[in-house]
Amino acid sequence: MELNPASLEWNDAYKLLVGSILPRPIAFVTTMDADGNVNAAPFSFFTAICADPMLICFSPMRKGTDGSKKDTLANIEETKEFVINIVSQDFTEKMNICAADYPAGTDELVAAGLTKEKSAAVNPPRVKESKVHLECSLHQVLHFGERPGSGSLVIGKVEHVHVAEELYENGRISSEKLKPVGRMAGHIYTRPMTDVFELIRKTEPR
């Protein structure tokens, strides 16, 4: 099967991406607008960039209806701050409630029954139910189009990290205790810790 992305509708290209790049970690992002209204939304185009400086990134796509910016992106451009709340199994369903397209100004955390907790270095709150929080200032944002299917790359500098005490062992986070979830294609999620194996990384050529 040979496919040329230039000949595909954006939603068909999207299906190829999410069906190929998986499992994907979920950035559950909390932001505030200039008036103090809180927004929360999950994004599965999310990864780390580097440790020094400590940078992460996620990609909010434009709305599929009219190509407008999502509230998360608009808030970050306005206030230059956000929090990445790592998603664990025990609040995945409540996180999913926040994925709906609520009117601007709606507090999705209230709608989902999740708890706000004051951040240490930024104004947007963190989600108490999350066991790891990355408080970020905006380092850079790049835009790639303004139509449905287009998106942006938001790069954040991690200013402060919260880790639940029971997870932190000898300078590392216990994946088994974190119990993360990942996003697959369609409506499918995965529990990556249910079936794992060890493979020691090779440091010398054969």
TrEMBL record:
Domain of life: Bacteria
Keyword annotations of the record: Flavoprotein, FMN
Cofactor needs: FMN
Pfam family, any one: Flavin_Reduct
The Flavin reductase like domain, residue ranges: 19-175
InterPro entries the UniProt entry points to: Flavin_Rdtase-like_dom, Split_barrel_FMN-bd
Family to which the UniProt record says this protein belongs: Belongs to the flavoredoxin family.
Protein name: Flavin reductase like domain-containing protein
Source species: Cytobacillus oceanisediminis
Taxonomic lineage: Bacteria, Bacillati, Bacillota, Bacilli, Bacillales
